[in-house]
Amino acid sequence: MVEVQPTIPQVLAAAVRNDPASPLLTFYDDASGDRTELSGATLDNWVSKTANLLVDGLGLGNGDTAAVHLPPHWQTAAILLGVWSAGLAAETGDTESADVLVTTPGQTSATKAPDRYATGLLPFAMPLRELPAGFADYVLEVRQHGDYFPGQPVAPDDKALNGRTHREVLAKAAETTIPAGARVLIDAAEHPDPVDWLLAPLVAGASIVLCANLDAAKIETRARSEKVSLVL
Q: Which fold has domain 8-231?
């Protein structure tokens, strides 16, 4: 039985503390050829920058909502974890009533959010060449903020994801069959829910090899080169 930490920020902190230098999330996109590897410490830096953007930059916190209208990606992981660290609730479907929106230029996201950010999810975290009207570039904006976040009060019964609390989301993530300490290759198209591709591995103490536009012919060699112990 996996012991579940009471909030998502505590799950992340435990994962980073366990091994800050080893890869925690490795992202592949077989359409673009992108490969990005983030250690626990590096992912935590992006999470902290995102949380600082939300709290110090926008004045948001507990009771506010961030619409994260993005596909599975390492930046999506950093944004979602930053949202939760800042004490906000995340919505991946309902963008209309959010306090802040993060999306890609190609997405149609109706929203009343006063603060709107776009990211191209480009290799090397490159900024967008053309920014949609009314949007700031997430990559450019987040880099202006510090890579240490002092923390925000987050309770197990605070809203976390699509109306569910931290307690409920983590209980669902703990139902996983991912072995403790595994290195798991995840097909993003088959597992688009962040509970499956992000939180379940973190709860299990696993490291993630997240693959977008996965070329099935590459699975065997990738699993071998990345020392994967489980393919999902």
A: Rossmann fold (3.40.50)
pTM of the model: 0.96
Strands of the sheet containing 65-69, edge to edge, are: 136-137, 115-118, 100-103, 65-69, 89-91, 159-161, 164-165
* C-beta atoms surrounding 216 within 10 Å: 8
Longest dimension (CA), the chain: 49
Q: How far, in Å, CA of 141 to CA of 136, rounded?
A: 7
Residue spans of the domains in the chain: they are 8-231
User: What is 57-76 written as a DSSP string?
Assistant: IT---TT-EEEEE--S-HHH
Give, as one character, the DSSP assignment of residue 184. E
| 1 — pLDDT class (breaks 50, 70, 90) | very low
**157-172 tens-digit pLDDT:** 999 999 999 999 999 9
